[in-house]
Amino acid sequence: MTHSPNRHAHAPELRAAAQHLGRRRFLTVTGAAAALAFAVNLPGTAHAAELDAKKITEDPFTLGVASGDPQPGSVTLWTRLATRPYEPDSGLPRARVQLRWELAHDARFTRVARRGSVTAHPEFHHSVHVDVTGLDNDRPYFYRFRAGSWISPAGRTRTAPARNARISELRLGAVSCQAYHDGYFTAYKHLAEEDLDAVFHLGDYLYEYAVNAVGGARNYPDRVLPAHFNRETVTLEDYRLRYGLYKSDPDLRAAHAAHAFILTWDDHETENNYAGDIPENGVPPEEFLLRRAAAYRAYWENQPLRRPQRPAGADMHLYRRLHFGRLAQFDILDTRQYRSDQAYGDGWKVPGPESQDPARTLTGATQERWLLSGWKSSRARWNVVPQQVTFAQRRDVPTAAYKVSMDAWDGYSASRDRVLAGAEAAGIENLMVLTGDVHVGYAFDLKRDFNDPASPTVGTELVATSISSGKDGADKPGNWDNLTKANPHMKFYNGRRGYVNITLGEQQARADFRTVSAVTTPGAPITTAASFVTEAGSPGLKPA
């Protein structure tokens, strides 16, 4: 897509910083350059005036509340003030606002466990992130915010168990890919009603593509969306507006209020199929890094992430590790920010020397070392890797002339081999990979050698279909026969929308693939398309 410089103008201080440093210098100090570009927008430097919250005359909590990254005795709370979320300034003046928050043991807030205040800075688009500590381990809590006389909706969250605690069960949800313009977020309405300890979002929380006046496939009969949504997101203002649109969806707000989310991104939070500092479109890298800096900042502003994840310009440390007692270790990956460029120009291609080059990486060397090192010290029953793109081999046809996706781990096969070898060397018996991206549900056995069906199974992969991307979908997509025949380690393939529920126990893990019949019309019921179990110490999926 060609972008108009007038419609997609980056903030002057961003452009000035990039021009001052020059292309080579900018690319060699990406983080420093972009951090400099954003420095004038950090709280404490602009000396914004303070707005008395009592003077806010419209509901500022239109985007709801959220919690995330639960740890033992701690959880992060989030909200963003927006009286008019479809406007660039969200309806608020450029002034800081004092909020109060409280976290209680009960939904009526009669037994308050913690309370405090926090400042919503205009430099962060009036978003707040509160890391609440000193809580009980493995306990549910309720939370809310106050701004003047306004009280936010209440959210429910849960802390993680102590690192060495023995817990018998952990209930999780896995979601991905929620294109607003492809349909309603009906699956989130059902997810909000599930009994879960946490939800993993595996990427594509929003899409950069234009959303027309009727919301694309939603085809609204009763509203008209502003024209500024009907363009691709490029600037910080564009991304902020798009989060305002997405988070105004009532089903998404309900899911956030019901469960703690643990998030990682994929490509569409910035731009389709970008690789590190290499864009999909033919713009100069330094221009793309301005866009990436804007996208990363807006992502931070709108998600319940902890302070270590706050971006520095075009860089953001999103990969991290969470523990839930002795039952599970979660290594949340970022396979987008550090990857090598896609081989053979991207797309589905015949694998060859370029895609199989050992120097190629999907995670970057530093993140790969962090992952393998973490496995060496793991004492968890289940080692789970929430990440973005399909990990298992996925041939498109059951013949010798097959192709694989250059954007997935198939396009970085040496990188995948190192990860699997690292898991085996660390003695990881119960490896589980959680994946999004592809808008279908898959269940795979992970093989030591995917080219040999008799090769040992070393783990499992559960791929969560999309919330809405791809529109209604079908139980058996057009390539169902080819993919199932070409990949004997594929145990399930379904093309409807929905999510996966995962129950981890001491003896086995269970996956329930939950789907809805339609997203282009609202209100579809939820059903279970298939269920599988894998036994602890004996990897391999079996129908439940």
CATH homologous superfamily assignment of the largest domain: Alkaline phosphatase D (PhoD)
Strand tally: 25
Low-confidence stretches: 1-7, 19-37
Rg from alpha-carbon coordinates: 23 Å
What fraction, in percent, of the residue positions are helical? 10-25%
Structural class: alpha/beta
Main beta sheet: 10 strands, mixed
Strand content: 25-35%
Ends apart, CA distance between termini: 46 Å
Instruction: Report the CATH C-level class of the largest domain.
Output: Alpha Beta
Number of domains: 2
The shape, in one word, is globular
Which strand order do you get reading across the main beta sheet? Answer: 6-3-2-12-11-10-22-23-24-25
Signal peptide: 1-48
Domain Phospholipase D N-terminal: 63-159
Protein name: Alkaline phosphatase
Domain PhoD-like phosphatase metallophosphatase: 173-513
